[in-house]
Amino acid sequence: MDYAAARANMIECQVRTNKVIDPDVIAAMATVPREAFVPEALRPVAYIDEDLTVAPGRFLLEPMIIARLLQSAEIKKTDRALDFATGTGYGAALLAHLAGTVTALDSRASLLDLARRALAAAPVPVNFVEAPLDGVLAQAEGLAGQSFDVVLVSGALPKVPAALLDLLAEGGRLVTILKPEVAGGGEPPMGSATLFVKRAGVAAGRVLFDSATPLLPEFAPKPQFVF
Fold it and tell me: Which residues cross the membrane (predicted)?
């Protein structure tokens, strides 16, 4: 398969046609090989316009979705960036072309090993941190004392954990997909891409567009039984 041609087609048919005009985001998407971040069996479909499950509960976000999230974050070369639930590291790879420093966080050592290998040639050093996604992140080894100008969440959340918002620096931006819990439990079919900006210590959110990105299982609502 001609992956370079597939990548170029992704840019022209999925990214540019969906309100993505930031030249740095487009260049990053055109440079990073999505096929390097999926299992071999998924490589032929690495560039389709869908979220791909690369491991149980970890996702390669749909090209248009991640491109619009990154554009909305207005990332600068001086920014400190965090990819939350990095999985195999695709989000971190894109951030490495946009920000000054990058941290890739996941709870699974096996996935971080895959991400580390895939990101060996990243344009900036990537710091890999293993920690529970639903834990006290500020106390995790590798995160203690740190704050970030940009946080990308590589999966959907019912709401943004306070522990994650606490990692945002003043003026920091967090982009994610929100899928609020529905009555009776379960995952709603559609969520909202949302940008949070921290000002005067408070992070306020603004809805950007709709997205069906799956929930991260660590934050999925538990089934409710009614008798």
Answer: none
Tens of pLDDT, residues 59-108 = 999 999 999 999 999 999 999 999 999 999 999 999 999 999 999 999 99
Q: What is the CATH number of the domain that holds 172?
A: 3.40.50.150
The strand pairing partners of 91, in sequence order, are none
Decide if 83 is inside a domain. Answer: yes
The domain of 106 spans 3-219
**DSSP 3-state of 106:** strand
Provide the pLDDT for residue 203: 96
Q: Give the CA distances from residue 66 to residues 14, 51, 180, 214, 221, in Å, rounded to whole numbers and listed in that order.
A: 11, 10, 20, 13, 24
Residue 23: which of 61, 71, 59 has the closest Cα? 71
Overall domain count for the chain:
1
What is the value of pTM for the model shown? 0.93
Instruction: Name 13's Cβ contacts closer than 8 Å, sequence gap at least 6.
Output: none
Long-range contacts of 182-186 (CB under 8 A, 24+ apart): 182/221, 184/224, 184/226, 185/221, 185/222, 185/223, 185/224, 186/221, 186/223
Q: Give the pLDDT score at 183.
A: 66
Percentage of residues in the chain having pLDDT higher than 70: 96
